[in-house]
């Protein structure tokens, strides 16, 4: 037991503070997943999988993309994705976390500066720690603060390239980045843009192409589109100019040394892209459900100025948040509590996700119960 004591003590500390995490099974109506368009369990992807297996698409890749793991399925996906997202090239990674870490650790150089939104994803922070560039955070969605940081760095002798990094839709707050202003700032200072479209892909923009679609062709723009959220599969597509993609192929350790994603997975992502390319029906249906949820969130929870399919209900205390989540789960709604370090201290919350896996009627039932629960807490 001597070997394990420090781990047991650390786990006990997490339990005492209401921050201990466990793996819980799926149960109840889906208000927690990122399967926004309901594609993950759809007949569209099931049929695509069966057809791919019937024609001999393999489950495993057998190695990294630079060895024998590169298949026609990967290359077809990348070609189609580049066209769909309006970029010169695309590169398929096995996971969004890996892709984001690879971008930040491989592209900004030693004399550069990464200026990033304070609420950017943990994968970006991991990549920055592995990278060579200096980094600095600007206050969330505050373009003026970002500009002042750039000017200060230049005034102190910073001579490298600026990399402006943000999420187009923020995963825990559900708000949107001021994309137009950030693009203008980047262009004014000859900066690269690293835009994480994870929670916009499939949901925002023409046919779900994301909030950066109109800017994606520019040589200073790199976008990340994860495939395990709105697209319902897994993996991630990094989209941008050919020299940036080739640099990732040569430098990104998460790509060079990783076994390639399953060719079958690549096939299913192609099927998901084809579905949203051919029709905006799912996007339209989701927009209607989200508007319905926003109205109920304001009525029952006093929430206003909501922007997306992600609705944060900030409670504050860790244990109180988890107790509220447990009460909703007991009523048949799968809602989870989000605690630090995923969100800032004292902002523990219920992260309510609106997807096509629920109906307007179920959403109404959930918010009525949630409103009563919040009233009890007050």
Protein architecture, described:
With 378 residues, the chain is α/β, with parallel strands linked by helices. It folds into 2 domains: 29-39 and 280-377, Aspartate Aminotransferase, domain 1 (Alpha-Beta Complex); 59-278, 3-Layer(aba) Sandwich (Aspartate Aminotransferase, domain 2). Helices cover 43% and strands 15% of the residues.
Approximately what portion of the residues adopt beta-strand conformation?
5-15%
Shape: globular
- CATH fourth-tier homologous superfamily of the largest domain: Type I PLP-dependent aspartate aminotransferase-like (Major domain)
Instruction: Supply Rg.
Output: 21 Å
Short description:
With 378 residues, the protein is an alpha/beta fold. The protein has helices spanning 5-16, 43-54, 72-84, 96-106, 122-130, 143-155, 179-188, 242-251, 253-256, 263-278, 281-301, 318-330, 360-377, and strands spanning 29-30, 89-93, 113-117, 134-138, 162-167, 192-196, 221-226, 236-240, 310-316, 333-334, 337-338, 348-353. It has a seven-stranded mixed sheet, sandwiched between helices.
């Amino acid at each position: 037991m001597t070997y394990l004591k420090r781990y047991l003590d650390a786990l006990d500390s997490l339990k005492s503070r209401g921050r201990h995490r466990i793996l819980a099974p799926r149960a109840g109506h889906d208000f927690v997943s990122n399967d926004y368009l309901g594609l993950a369990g759809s007949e569209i992807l099931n049929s695509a999988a069966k057809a791919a297996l019937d024609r001999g698409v393999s489950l495993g890749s057998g190695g990294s993309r630079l060895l024998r793991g590169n298949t026609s399925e990967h290359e077809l996906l990348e070609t189609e994705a580049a066209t769909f997202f309006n970029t010169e090239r695309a590169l398929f990674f096995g996971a969004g976390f890996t892709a984001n870490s690879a971008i930040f650790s491989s592209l900004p150089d030693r004399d550069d500066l990464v200026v990033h939104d304070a609420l950017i994803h943990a994968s970006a922070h991991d990549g920055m720690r592995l990278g060579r560039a200096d980094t600095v955070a600007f206050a969330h969605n505050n373009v003026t603060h970002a500009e002042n940081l750039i000017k200060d760095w230049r005034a102190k002798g910073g001579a490298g390239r600026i990399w402006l990094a943000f999420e187009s839709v923020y995963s825990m707050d559900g708000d949107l980045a001021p994309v137009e202003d950030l693009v203008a700032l980047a262009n004014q200072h000859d900066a690269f843009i690293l835009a994480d479209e994870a929670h916009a892909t499939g949901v925002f923009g023409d046919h779900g192409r994301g909030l950066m679609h109109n800017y994606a062709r520019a040589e200073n723009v790199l976008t990340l589109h994860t495939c395990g959220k709105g697209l319902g599969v897994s993996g991630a597509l990094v989209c941008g100019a050919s020299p940036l993609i080739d640099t990732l192929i040569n430098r990104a350790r998460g790509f060079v040394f990783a076994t390639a994603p399953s060719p079958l997975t690549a096939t299913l992502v192609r099927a998901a892209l084809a579905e949203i390319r051919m029709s905006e029906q799912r996007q339209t249906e989701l927009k209607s459900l989200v508007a319905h949820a926003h109205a109920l969130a304001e009525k029952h929870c006093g929430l206003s100025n909501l922007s997306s399919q992600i609705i944060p209900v900030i409670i504050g205390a860790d244990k109180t948040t988890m107790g509220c989540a447990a009460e909703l789960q007991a009523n048949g709604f799968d809602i989870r509590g989000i605690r630090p370090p995923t969100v800032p201290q004292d902002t523990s919350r219920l992260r309510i996700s609106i997807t096509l896996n629920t109906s307007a009627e179920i959403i109404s039932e959930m918010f009525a119960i949630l409103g009563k629960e919040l009233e009890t807490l007050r």
